Amino acid sequence: MTLTESVFRGPMLPAAHGDEVTTRAVAAVTHKFPHAVRETIAFRGEQTLLLDTAALVEVCRFLRDDPGLRFDVLTDVMAVHFLDRDYEYEVSYVLASYPNNAVLRLKVRAGGRMGRGNVPTVTGVWGTADWQEREEWDKVGVVFAGHPNLKRILMPDDWEGHPLRRDYPMEGIGA
Amino acid sequence: MSFKTETIEPGTELMTVNMGPSHPATHGVLRLILTLDGERVVKAEPVMGYLHRGMEKIAENKTYTQFIPYTDRLDYLAPLSNNVGFANAVEKLVDVQVTPRCACIRVLVCEMSRISAHLLWLGTHAVDLGAITVFMYTFREREVLYDFFEALTGTRLTTSYTRVGGLARDLPAGFLDEVGRWLDRFEKELDEYETLLTKNTIWIERTSGVGVLSPADALDLGVTGPNLRASGVEWDLRKARPYLGYDTYEFEIPIGTKGDVYDRYLVRIEEMRQSVKICRQAVKRMPGGPIDVDDPKLVLPNKEKVLTQMEELIHQFIIVTEGFEAPKGQVYSAIEAPKGELGFHILSEGGPSPYRMKIRSPSFVNLQALPKLCVGSLVSDVVAIIASLDPVMGEVDR
To answer: Distance between CA B167 and CA B171 in Å, rounded?
Structure first.
């Protein structure tokens, strides 16, 4: 599953080119997966695509493999827990295309009224998702379905609960 | 976890050995569960979390300004660099541009802490492989750097130097001249360190061809910083996504060819030279003017006036106790820290503190390459590989 062909080695392209590629990527995903894109958000020069959870892996694979886009790196995964929304979890993925110097954020929502609190794993697309998803599950409790090794990474193995949930007190439970 | 032997196939007996969490070569509280076939590593499983302090939970309960001291304790070998990374992220969220003097000072301290962090890596890496002399030299130089940091921030380690929209204080008198003199001296020192290692046969034997990370694996695992560049990938956020005016400085990005421990050594050595070059340019061009943005809602008032005038005292009290109001939104802002891409991913729902903040620490992500690099190598090489990846556990565990 690793990127074996045409690995990026350099040189870096200007950031302005990258921003163009990001805009192109947003358009390409919207065009190719019209039912998967719920919303596009632009804030402080960052582009975000809010996706249907079911389409996440397919979109990620497309963004990675499309020769004009090549989002070959998953930079960051952040999960957020909500108590007062239709959904329980929101997971953000920061993608980077080193060959194009582009950045793009994907977001999915799960849990609550949106059904089970499961998000499909992207470990099959980027190897780095392994630890990053483990960490987010450990802290927030969102289950990454299909993850090969979803166990504690920062908290002790016998810890109960997920400390970054909104209903988890700052002082800890039983303190 | 008990020590046990297991048999997978007849004639092959594997042994499980626990390395760490308090082992001098694991650079902090990293624990490795090694499965060995004789001297060869069959499997290596890192266990982290011994230094977990719940930084991200703390961030949700502090104002942005109150969180700055916590960033010192991420990568505690380059606290100034973390301060800058966090301030940059919050400034992106509230949409302010720092003054030219502030940006230049931030560049200067970032590069000085890069040198400081790389010196620690060099010293400990050499000790791990038995070259104790190098350690003495690099720690002598680090003392000088700590003196600079102390003159600048008041402390050696927990600097908390940046503020949202500015800095805690301006440069002390004579600081730039002193730094300039030190830079001239340090460049010669670097050559001296290199004479101890770069062509040293034992050093080359221990590092060359050991722990090879291919560029494809490095990208797949999200490895960043010198570790990525040593694998031959030309990628540096200072050039790719210039912040603080890095595009106006002249410097080069050293890259490796083989991605082994020796290449990671060479890349970091050269990075120190490039940092010297950047520092020199920053010292030379240091612009005048204020260090803080002109935004009374964001920046604390002048200290002298706080102590003498009622309005300023109230003003300071309100900013300190209530913080400032950040807009709703989500930003990801990253800098090229000594270890790699240090990102702050902030989700704001308005109010004075983040709703959720993820710290994308380079050491955590880089460490994921460790099991892959260790498999097939000798136990003694594991020590070299850990040192060459240069993880710092304060940042891994957060």
So the answer is: 10
pTM, two decimal places: 0.89
Tokens of B22: 């308090």
With a cut of 60, say whether residue A3 has pLDDT above it. Answer: no
Comma-separated ranges of CATH 1.10.645.10 domains in chain B: 55-293+323-397
pLDDT digits (tens, 9 = 90+) for A99-158: 889 999 999 998 877 666 789 999 989 999 999 999 999 999 898 988 898 889 998 888
Query: What CATH number is attached to the domain comprising A57?
Result: 3.30.460.80
Q: Is residue A3 part of a domain?
A: no
Domain count for chain A, please give it: 1
Would A172 be classed as within a structural domain?
no
| pLDDT confidence bin for A6, thresholds 50/70/90 | low
Neighbours of B200 (CB within 10 A): 17
Residue A63 lies in a domain: yes
Say how far apart CA B31 and CA B42 lie, in whole Å.
16
The 10s digit of each residue's pLDDT in B269-324 is 999 999 999 999 999 999 988 988 888 888 888 888 889 989 889 988 888 888 88
Mutation to test the B interface, candidates A1, A4, A6, A9, most B Cβ within 10 Å: A9
| CB contact B397 to A (< 8 Å) | yes
Check CB contact under 8 Å for B56 and A139. yes
Query: Hey, what CATH topology would domain B55-293+323-397 get?
Result: Cytochrome-c3 Hydrogenase; chain B (1.10.645)
Give me the phi and psi of B334, to 5 degrees please. Answer: -130, 150
Please tell me whether residue A16 adopts helix, strand or coil conformation.
helix
Does B347 lie at the interface with A, CB-CB under 8 angstroms?
yes
**B219/A98 touch (CB, cutoff 8 Å), yes or no:** yes
User: Does the beta-carbon distance from A12 to B235 stay under 8 Å?
Assistant: yes
Let me know if residue A4 belongs to a domain: no
Q: How far is it, in rounded angstroms, from Cα A110 to Cα A119?
A: 7
Q: What is the pLDDT of residues B22-63, one digit of tens each?
A: 777 767 788 888 888 888 888 899 998 888 988 999 999 899
- Residues of chain B positioned with their CB less than 8 A from the CB of A102: none
Give strand pairing partners of B328.
B349
- A23-57 pLDDT, tens per residue? 999 999 989 888 888 888 888 889 999 998 888 99
Chain B residues within 8 A of A164 when measuring between CB atoms: 56-57, 60, 356
Mutate to test the interface with A, among B51, B52, B220 (most CBs of A within 10 A): B220
Which residue range is the domain that position A82 belongs to? Answer: 15-145
How open is the CA angle B378-B382-B388, to the nearest 5 degrees?
Answer: 135
Sign for the pseudo-dihedral over CA of B170, B173, B176, B182: negative
- Residues A13, A14, A15, A17, CA torsion sign: negative
Instruction: Give B-chain residues touching A48 at CB under 8 angstroms.
Output: 330
